[in-house]
Write a structure and sequence with these properties.
Strands 1-5-6-4-3-2 form a six-stranded mixed β-sheet. The protein is of the alpha+beta class. It folds into two domains: 1-47 and 98-165, OB fold (Dihydrolipoamide Acetyltransferase, E2P), CATH 2.40.50.140; 51-90, no CATH class. A hairpin with a 2-residue loop joins β3 and β4. It contains three helices and six strands; from the N terminus they run αααββββββ. It has helices at 7-46, 79-90, 93-96, and strands spanning 102-106, 109-110, 119-123, 126-132, 143-151, 158-164.
């Protein structure tokens, strides 16, 4: 055991151990945030009245998001994923996330806007940007309550204001 008595070997061992712990932490954090983000789309698929929770063979109703002239499928090798993607494109954002409704959600990421505090969350598979009344103390991974305020111009995302922790 003379090997461990050398201070340089002990320091190198500690540094390598800390690096490995950090790598494991980042991997587990990515997995957990992926699961949390995926729960939003999973939950959205089982909400009663949602087109994706009913029989997939039934046609969905068209909305302004309908794409009748799809040139190339996004998921050519996975027909189920392609059908789910097309149904998501066809659903109405106002039906999925009504304005004024409040939700508890987990902050997925800081969007990096340096002029104001802005975060992205995911509800029912829809990106929601929390960009009003956000305190500086909000960080990634926090559970917050938000209220939907408006939709993006293309109706493919929503915006919300921070309500509380």
């Amino acid at each position: 055991m003379v090997f461990w008595y050398h201070p340089l070997v002990a320091i190198i061992t500690i540094v390598v151990s800390l690096i490995l712990l950090y790598i494991v932490y980042r991997i587990l954090r990515a997995i957990i945030l992926g699961i949390i983000g995926g729960l939003g789309s999973l939950w959205g698929s089982i909400v009663p009245g949602d087109a994706s929770s009913s029989d997939r063979s039934k046609p969905t109703t068209s909305s302004p998001l309908s794409k009748t002239d799809r040139e190339e499928p996004k998921y050519p090798d996975d027909p189920d994923a392609q059908q789910a993607h097309e149904e998501a494109q066809d659903r109405s954002l106002a039906d999925t996330l009504p304005k004024g409704r409040e939700y508890d959600t987990v902050v997925l990421e800081n969007t990096g806007n340096s002029q104001r505090n802005e975060f992205r969350v995911n509800l029912y598979g829809v990106n929601v940007f929390v960009d009003e009344n956000v305190p500086d103390s909000v960080t990634e991974g926090d559970t917050i309550r938000i209220q939907i305020t408006h939709y993006s111009g293309k109706m493919n995302a929503a915006h919300a204001r921070f309500v509380s922790f």
